Inverse folding.
């Protein structure tokens, strides 16, 4: 079964909008409005590289598995900062002459909570790979679902812009606040 990027983005946005209509609390904030300043997380996702291909340059994009760990610090009820390390476990080509293999990305981002549990983030970092390294500009959104005391799960949609190509990631994050 194949799903287009456009369909995946629409599904993600519909789910996020539906969740926003029923949201009441934030994963960083407990029932007494106490801020949990620290959060660690792990995540798994799929990265879509529109200009990437595996076998033939006429292929329309490539999907790569992605794994990440991160730490964030909640400054107040609206703002947070975070650092994250991602690994894209796969090989692909871009524009015929750019080879990417097991990419490692480290990024720092600032987050802003638009509504309870729904936030945006922006930041930058570096993509490290044995053939060539790239600066990365990162934009994204997440929606946090509390699943227990100080635990949460969140779907994420992230856009990374590099000089020669871009990528989209849809991921699921498991986090612990303290």
């Amino acid at each position: 079964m194949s799903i287009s990027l456009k369909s995946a983005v629409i599904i993600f946005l519909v789910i996020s909008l539906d969740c926003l209509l029923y949201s009441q609390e934030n994963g960083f904030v407990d029932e007494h409005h106490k801020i949990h300043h620290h959060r660690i997380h792990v995540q798994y996702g799929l990265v879509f590289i529109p200009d990437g291909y595996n076998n033939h340059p006429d292929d329309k994009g490539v999907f790569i598995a992605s794994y990440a760990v991160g730490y964030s610090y909640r400054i107040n009820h609206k703002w947070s900062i975070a650092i994250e390390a991602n690994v894209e476990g796969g090989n692909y080509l871009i524009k015929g002459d750019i080879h990417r293999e097991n990419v490692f990305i480290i990024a720092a981002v600032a987050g802003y909570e638009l509504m309870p549990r729904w936030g945006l983030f922006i930041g930058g970092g570096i993509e490290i790979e044995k053939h060539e390294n790239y600066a990365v500009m990162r934009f994204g959104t997440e929606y946090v679902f509390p699943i227990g005391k100080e635990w949460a799960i969140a779907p994420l949609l992230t856009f990374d812009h590099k000089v020669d190509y871009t990528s989209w990631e849809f991921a699921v994050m498991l986090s612990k606040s303290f």
The radius of gyration is 17 Å. Residues 91 and 164 are 16 Å apart (CA to CA). Residues 19-27 have pLDDT under 50 and may be disordered. The chain has one domain: 5-177.
